[in-house]
Please model this.
Amino acid sequence: MLSIKNLHASIEDKPILRGLDLEVKPGEVHAIMGPNGSGKSTLSYVLAGKDDYEVTEGSATLDGQDLFALAADERAAAGLFLAFQYPLEIPGVATMTFLKAAVNAQRRARGEGDLPTPQFMKLVREKADGLGISSDMLKRGLNVGFSGGEKKRNEILQMALLEPKLCVLDETDSGLDIDALKVVSEGVNALRAKDRAFVVITHYQRLLDHIAPDVVHVMAKGRIVRTGGPELAHELEARGYADYVGEAAA
Amino acid sequence: MPAVQETVARVREIDVDQYKYGFVTNIESDRAEKGLSEDTVRFISAKKGEPEWMLEWRLDAYRRWRTMVEPDWARVDYPPIAYDELYYYSAPKSTAGPKTLDEVDPELLRTYEKLGIPLREQEILAGVEQRRVAVDAVFDSVSVATTFKKELAQAGVIFCPISEAIREHPELVKKYLGSVVPTSDNFFATLNSAVFSDGSFVYVPKGVRCPMELSTYFRINEQNTGQFERTLIIADEGSFVSYLEGCTAPMRDENQLHAAVVELVAHDDAEIKYSTVQNWYPGDAEGKGGIYNFVTKRGDCRGRNSKISWTQVETGSAITWKYPSCILRGDGSRGEFYSIAISNGRQQVDSGTKMIHLGKNTTSKIISKGISAGRSQNTYRGLVSAHRKATNARNFTNCDSLLIGDECGAHTVPYLEAKTSTAVFEHEATTSKISDDQKFYCLQRGLSEEEAVALIVNGFVKDVLQQLPMEFAVEAQKLISISLEGSVG
Model:
């Protein structure tokens, strides 16, 4: 599904990703762990098409489609979803309005018509209930005054509504208490499907207690330096990243 | 060469397609000779079949105007206007007294249809819905169709072209015309007083709540014709009226002068709500051909506890020079100003309000949202003043500017004058830019760049949009998206 080959990317001429390879098959959950500054978030931004990053070498395809040939909104319509570490606030735009704009924009990009409002409302209600999102929250300005947990749940709600092929979760566990972590993880698990893949970027093992990965990667200095099964996450939790920082530098 | 094609497509879009309401209707005109003289004034007055006193009023204004100098203090820049090269009166020819819509020139009805506001539909809709809208359609300079007159008459409300009011209700016109904006007020208002062509007249009698929203759609159509509307609205004691004004104009090459005057009078316990959606042709990408909009709008809260509120959505015109104001004369009166001013391309906006507190315990509120995109300049200019006798005057001002791109400018020029120590004026102002992160967040959810900007902007102006009557708010929201097209990428 997602195939990244020898990816190099920089920001303001500073190289961050230095030859990253990653293969993710449909239905799989891949965890990418690594120390701060290893380029984890950069990877998510580069895949999603943020302007500030420049791809200098390598390729990334989603179901064979060259991601770097698409604009950010086209990548979204192609089925790439990024759950932000810090979801943005948009004052004055009701969450519901934003959700509807996003759903319909993607439907139009795929040549489908807008979802009729009653049908859309019903769908949102259903998905929101499962994530403990109140209708009051949906009326408030997008992410404005939301707690950390509310923002992350709102990200998962968007994911659920947009039904992407590939979900990239960037440090979704950051700033969450244990209860919020549970709700968010359950939301993610509910979306696991054989034709959908996840790349879960996290610094800590604890998220992976809730979202069980099939494959765990260690990232350091802009590359994947080690790949293993779920047990690798536990090893990292016990021993820290010090080894890998040294290894990649060598 | 996709990049080149894209550029070409974008340029074409900006030049030709961007002004979606740019089209010219073909109706023979009956217009005055070019230029401005006493004869022009007499011609207009005669065309209107006006009484002698009205002609004298106009001539007085004309003579005064000849002695006046065009103001230059606003932050706008335009080549000198050749006043003697303009036409000051034009009227659609085949409009001699249509009794029903069937008698209205079909070409004209089609124009309204293109604008999405067919009068016919208005009538039908009104029969279905609770909410009713009466339309006094100003096509170029003459009101050609007035609907719902009967129902309004039953309530005792007078809603007609001002030319008709001059003939039918001279006592009211004599009493109120020029009582808020005197003929000597300012260069453009004085010009208007001399040559005003038509406009609306509204009188709501004592204790009457006007049974429907009153609405006028202005449209400038004749090439090279300055348009000078004159609107006068009087709300007698304890009455209420909501008035909507919406404008679109066809595309053209030469700058058009527009100098309207609107006067509002609210007596004791009366309330007037005046809403405007303005979408005149802003000019092409180089700023060529847009409308010059020099408007004087003023409301007089003449009575105790009276209230006047202005709500405006300004998206069009090459130059906007407009300060809808309130004179808070009556004790306990209240003035409000809610404004969205959007500038794109080469547009120049210098707009704001004046709240003049004269009576005791008067209050006012100003919410202004300025959005600048492209290479436009957007200035908020506002005056809040309290007279020495205006004890306990209160004002709250909130003035926010949003910048899109790096080549536009936003300016805020507030003037505060308090001559009583009991006055409390609050002023808040912010300037922000749409952040790349906000935009990226929207793009990542699948919105196009233009949709993202429109969404963020609509959020920014929400407080003001909420002040508009529902049907207008929807129209305004669309307009905001249209006027920001081409501002990104």
